[in-house]
Write a structure and sequence with these properties.
The chain is α/β, with parallel strands linked by helices. It is built from 8 helices and 12 strands.
Length: 231
């Protein structure tokens, strides 16, 4: 998952970037509204965290503009302002949720998890595909009840592919959504992650959870056996 942080306070921006990177997200950051608009328009994000009080273009105008440009990723608003008018203005501009500063990092993570689940149409953080279960909140994967040891890159690849079973995902889409701008974008690197995933998810060669679609990318072949979806 790739997240954009737009926050002008350097210490807080770096703290958020570090905390979310440690959670396994690919994170880009901008220090003002104009840079946030550029990045939000040019790169494919799964979620943005936007401060209202930004220099240049303020956060409310940034959110309005992103929505006008038809960018539909969830937006979590950050504000130091306690009055209800500012919260309402941010939500009416197109924000999906808000946090008032100061806040605990765990609350931020929980809000982000909830927004990503909602965007994917899921009520629960647990994705179940027969013997395979993926918990997107704890980022834990189990196979027939036994935990699997995955690297952050392997986990990110698995979670993204499993979000839409049956959909063909290109190598380009994987790198754009999952990895930050410093990631080695050689397509062979993605092939290595997928190859290692196959061995860990399917040691007996019976599940075949990830299919290669020649010339197009990869498809997650397992179907969800869970019923907790959001209508």
């Amino acid at each position: 998952m790739r997240i954009l942080i737009v926050e002008d306070e350097t210490a807080l921006r770096e703290q958020l970037q570090s905390a979310l990177t440690a959670e396994g997200y690919a994170v880009d950051a901008a220090a003002d509204g104009n840079e946030g608009l550029y990045q939000g328009s040019e790169y494919p994000y799964d979620l943005a965290v936007v401060d209202i009080g930004l220099p240049g273009m303020d956060g409310i105008e940034l959110i309005k503009t992103l929505r006008q440009k038809d960018h539909q990723f969830p937006i979590l608003i950050l504000t130091a302002r306690g009055n209800w008018q500012d919260k309402v203005a941010g939500l009416e501009a197109g924000g999906d949720d808000y946090l008032v500063k100061p806040f605990h990092p765990e609350e931020l993570k929980a809000r982000i998890h909830a927004l990503l689940r909602r965007a994917a149409g899921r009520a629960s953080s647990a994705l179940t595909f027969g013997p395979l279960q993926i918990d997107t909140a704890s980022k834990q994967v189990t196979l027939e009840g036994a935990p699997l040891e995955l690297t952050s890159y392997e986990y990110n690849t698995l979670e993204y592919l499993s979000r839409e079973p049956g959909k063909v995902v290109s190598k380009t889409e994987l790198t754009e959504h999952l990895y930050d701008q410093d990631f080695d974008r050689d397509s062979n690197v993605i092939e290595v992650f997928v190859g290692r995933l196959r061995k860990k998810l399917d040691p007996g060669g019976t599940l075949k959870p990830i299919a290669t679609v020649r010339g197009q990318g990869y498809r997650f072949t397992l179907q969800s056996t869970a019923t907790g979806t959001i209508e």
